[in-house]
Write a structure and sequence with these properties.
By secondary structure, the chain is of the alpha+beta class. The chain is built from 3 helices and 5 strands, in the order H-E-E-E-H-E-E-H. Strand 1 and strand 2 form a beta hairpin. 26% of the residues are buried.
């Protein structure tokens, strides 16, 4: 693998981003919010952002919450690890 997480939790975050349910803060270490609740594992949030799997959907001032979107790399990563039914395949626990 290329250093990115393929855990069930990371894939669930990527699926939520694809569904338009995630916001992230505009900062070097973005915090993420799913369905308006803070993501319980900010370490995964930071890793996914630093791995260029997701990015802010628009610009904002530092600290502002903006929608998150998958990058092309994120879409490819998600497609490689999730089947058509949205179930993670080949993911570690």
């Amino acid at each position: 693998m290329d250093g990115t997480y393929a855990t069930h939790r990371a894939l669930a975050v990527l699926r939520a981003v694809a569904e338009g349910r995630v916001e992230m803060t505009c900062s070097a270490e973005s915090d993420m919010f799913v369905d308006d609740l803070a993501l319980c594992d900010q370490q995964i949030a930071h890793h996914l952002a630093h791995s260029a799997l997701l990015e802010p959907a628009c610009e904002g001032i530092v600290g502002m919450r903006v929608p998150a979107r998958l990058t092309a790399r994120g879409m490819t990563h998600l497609a490689a690890h999730v089947n058509d039914a949205g179930i993670a395949t080949n993911a570690s626990s």
